[in-house]
Automatic annotation (TrEMBL):
Superkingdom per UniProt: Bacteria
This protein's name: TrmB family transcriptional regulator
InterPro entries: TrmB-like, Tscrpt_reg_TrmB_C, Tscrpt_reg_TrmB_N, WH-like_DNA-bd_sf, WH_DNA-bd_sf
Organism for this UniProt entry: Paenibacillus gallinarum
Pfam families referenced in this protein's UniProt entry, alphabetically: Regulator_TrmB, TrmB
Transmembrane segments: none
Domain annotation Transcription regulator TrmB N-terminal: ranges: 8-74
Domain Transcription regulator TrmB C-terminal: 109-230
PANTHER family documented for this protein: HTH-TYPE TRANSCRIPTIONAL REGULATOR TRMBL2
Amino acid sequence: MDQLLQHLRSLGFTEMESKIMVHLSKEGASSGYEVSKRLGASRSNVYAVLQRLHARGILCCSDSEPAKYTMLPADEFTLIISNHVQESLGYVEQAMPKQKTSSPEFATLQGDRPIMEILAKEIATAEYEIIIDLCSEEASLFHDVLKDAEERGVRLLWSCDAGNGENNPFFGWHPFTDQETPSLFKGRTFSFIIDRKWSLLGSRGNETDTIGLVTEHPVMIRLLLGYFAQELIMYELEQDLGPEIQSRYGPHYEQIWNKYR
């Protein structure tokens, strides 16, 4: 009995409500006077509880004089409680204020070792795709970890400078003069996008410190994906229309770039 009363109280019923429901389930139809006498409770309190439970649809009340109350069958009673709980849970889920999420952060790393370590860790957890844009000097550094990823089914998409000294037409425009170029831009650039949700981009070599920027910011991911897509498009166009493009716009699209220098 005590355990039953405890479970009813955990469902939100008061101690008196729980005792009256259990009593009516056991004894059957009873008047308020009979309930108060058997439970040893004040008649006014018992009548107030009976009316409250009746209003909630948990008790049935006869039209006789005196009125007699009966408890719903257990399966009907528990169904009502279950529906109320589900309705409340649904409302709480929709109405509860959402916790503000912090904006994606940017982390700066310096030096080959920390960059290689975090990159190896992320590549090891890649699920379906790694997009790589780097120079041949850096490609060898990541050969082993990328090979492992490919062997477990991760798709690798490359944009790699062959190291023959030729400029990619897409990089034809240099917005800084030699005197204005920040140290960040003096090295060879590289970037990785893993599963289209994590990215690392940076520069290395040419007597500058290796530096990298790590972020999951969706805007940066979108920019890098767009940059990579443009390189693919430019490559395809050059393969199909190379001489025609050079004839019309000059080597490395100089006639276009010069408009915006």
